Amino acid sequence: MTIAKADYIEGLAKGLAVLEAFDTERQRLNATLASQRTGITRAAARRHLLTLAELGYLETDGSHYWLSARVLRFAGSYMATSRLPRTLQPTLNRLAQQTQAAFSAVVLDGGEGVIVARSAGVAEPVRQLAYGLHLGARLPAHATSTGRMLLACWPKAEFNVWLKGRELARITPQTEVGLARFKTLIDKVRLDDYCLARDAHELGIQALAVPLRNMQGQTLAALNVVGTAEQLSDGAVERKWLPLLLDAARELRPLL
């Protein structure tokens, strides 16, 4: 969506940029760090930090700032009002209960996948889940099965624009970071219409993803199952997990 310049509230955009500057690498920021991370002046960053603290979205010791629990209001409102998570959650619950494995539904936000629905069984696979798989978690698209699946569903021209000049972070020794090789990888995912990622995001963790499309053929999310190499062996994927995910995607399609 493109809006007129007169309708664009620059102060709001800068304030949100300051909030987004906090992450797992930088959990506490001062005005200087916030300025560096957002590209705004130090004076402007300081005013935004002070205002966000006054509104209760940040806490501070007078020098550094960190996110408060109030920011969860945004996530809570999204989960409560968005149709997609509410539609997907019962199916994920059923799959987890049926198999005792862990399932997630993910949407793409820029270069990251965001978990919008998730359910896990109570058997041994849960104890071996990848770190950080929780509602709202943001995972690098290039290193995850769901992220790769969603990128493969983009028009080729749009994907090429996204990839051009991008630096792909090496998260494990198995993470593909070469742009040409990654493009070939996505071409294969596009052809297969599913994605199996092995050790790309965390060593010892495998994930299989399929697209979730509506009746108009639009890809709205990706559904995956996560497990160990033994649980998601090639034979198990072909015999059990891929048919299971594809059946779930077909069942969900009229509801999306």
Explain this structure.
There is one protein chain. The protein is α+β, with helices and mostly antiparallel strands. It contains nine helices and eight strands. It has helices at 10-20, 31-38, 42-54, 72-81, 83-99, 145-152, 156-163, 179-192, 234-252, and strands spanning 58-60, 65-67, 102-109, 112-120, 138-140, 195-198, 206-213, 219-227. A hairpin with a 5-residue loop joins strand 7 and strand 8 (219-227). Helix 6 packs across helix 8. Mean pLDDT is 92; it is low at 124-128.
Radius of gyration: 20 Å
Structural class: alpha+beta
**Low-pLDDT ranges:** 124-128
Please report the number of helical segments: 9
Average pLDDT reading: 92
Largest sheet: 6 strands, antiparallel
User: Could you tell me the number of beta strands?
Assistant: 8
Report the order of strands and helices. Answer: HHHEEHHEEEHHHEEEH
Fraction in helix? 40-55%
Q: Distance between termini? A: 22 Å
Kindly report the oligomeric state of this protein. Answer: single chain
Strand residues, percent: 15-25%
